[in-house]
Here is the input.
Amino acid sequence: MALAPIHSVSEHPLSMDTEAAEPAHLRRAFRTDEFMGTTANMANGFTQGNVAILPSRYALDFARFCQRNPRPCPLVGISDTGNPHIQTSALILIFEQTCPVTTYTVRVSLSNRSPNIMDLWTDDSVAFVLGCSFSFEEALLKANIPLRHIELDRTAPMYRTTIKTSRAGPFSGGMVVSMRPMSPAQAIRASAITARFPHTHGMPVHVGDPSGIGISDLTQPDWGDPSEIREGEVPVFWACGVTPQNVIQHASIPVVITHTPGSMLITDVPSDVC
Here is the structure.
C-alpha cells in the first residue's frame, strides 16, 4: 500500500513570531491544534526533525537502516521501547510535545491523521527522530541565498528518486530528495554551508538535470508543493527525511506513526549542535 502523496495542509496562523518562537511554545500550539501546516522558517536556530514510530520488533532493523543511510536518515534520537521520552546527550524530548500533523498507517491499509502522537502510542512503540533540512535554512537565508518555498509560503517539493539506499531487514528502496532552486553560484555556496550540518542531511546529493536521479517532472512532486525555477537557476537536491516513509510503506509493517512531510517536530536542540 502506498501512502497518498500529501501536499500542503490547511494552515491556521499562529499569534506569535514563529521565526523567533521558542520550540516549546510552538509544540504547545501544535498540541492544541492551533496550527496545521509547514514548519519551514520556524524556531530559527533549533533542529527540526522527522518522526518515525514503529513496533519494537522492527526497531533494530530500522536503526541499522538509518546507520547505513546517514544522508537521508541522520539519527538525532531513539526512545526506549514504550517510553515516549527521548533523552540523549543532544536531545531531551517528550512525545506529547508533537508535530503539527501526524500521519499513521494501521494494518498497512488505512492512512489517517491525528494531531496528537500520544493518542496512538503503545507500550511497544519505539520512536526515532531524524534531522531535517529545515534546520539549515536559516544559515542559507543569512548568506543571502533565497529559498523559494519560504518566499511563496509553500511546502518544499520532495521527490522519489532512483538513488538506491542500503537495505536493512525489511527496509529498502529509493532515496527521497527535497529541491530548492537557486543560481549556480548560490548552489556552490549552499553546498559549502550545508556541509556543516551533517545531522540535518549535509550538502546536496545532486545538482542540475533531475532526470539524472530519476525525476521526470519537477512540476509534479511526490510530496509538498511545486516550486518555480526561474531563468538562470538550477534545481538543487538534498537527501530528505521522508525517505523512511518511502521505504516503510514497502516493509509490510502493521502500525506506523510518522509526521506529515513538511510538518516537522521542532526540538530544543540548537541546529549547530547536532
Summary: Residues 184-194 form the longest helix (11 residues).
